[in-house]
Amino acid sequence: MFYQCTIIYLLILRLVNCDRSFTLVLDTTWSMQDDIDVIKANLPSVLNTQEKTDIGNYIIVPFNDPGVGEPIIKATPQEILSSLNGLTAAGGTECPENSLTGIEKALQISKDQSNIFVFTDAYSKDAHKIGSIENLCENTRSKVIILLSGFCSSPNVDVQVYFDVAKACSGAVLKFDAFNLRQAFPYMKEAINVKWTDIITSETFVEYKQLTFTVDAFTKTSLVVASGENPTIEMRTPDDNSIAVEKIVNLRNTQVPKSVEILMDAHITLRGWVVPDYYRLTKLNTIPAIPRGLSQLSLGNFILAILRELYPG
Question: What range does the record give for the signal peptide (predicted)?
Fold first, then answer.
């Protein structure tokens, strides 16, 4: 009976309109010109391979000095890419920037459970917005992922507020520079093509720590995002065997390994000054979306599709 109720509950969830936004919060100050060129060149690879039907709109929230520009909201990937190609970097000769105001605006106008990606090379000077952002993330359940490509700052301002945003918004902070920013886009593909469940977010530590997580029968794969000073990550089984991983991002300041084995338990060992985020993808997150109009597929066949996903073979 419990299982039958679970299936009915999942069906009801799929029948409810739950589309989300794909949102960029984009620093358009002059120092971002090279970064914006990289974004223009690589974002099509993210959106053109995006097969999900639950993205309802595409948004760019530009911010500069002194404030946030008019949001750009489009219905299709092609339209938002065209708008992106029309943006240029200019102004904003002082650091830091009003990046949290841009994040706040993005959370206000994006749909619930959206993925919000922040591109900037500067720290934030509007840290007082953190309370509003925490409330918005709690209410909308959106994820905020900060892709930091520089360290433009001023006295009494540091990067910690970005990690506070990531912790409140089930996101992450990934550190790049203009030369390796292109490595951000494989990670973006992972983030938008599946719905990762956040387990541990932004637990800062120095030198060494071992995290243990249990993988239940519904878990398909796991993803770790570690940002800091020269982080190293090892994923091993309790009997000390290495776990096979795919390196989504492999840089001096950011490591993103994805496990490709299904295991019941695992240990993650991290060294360095590290802020880790651990996510897992469950089979329940990959249940196929219900078709528009059950005339395309009978309800019985849809339930069978769910059962095949949960219990393959």
Answer: 1-18
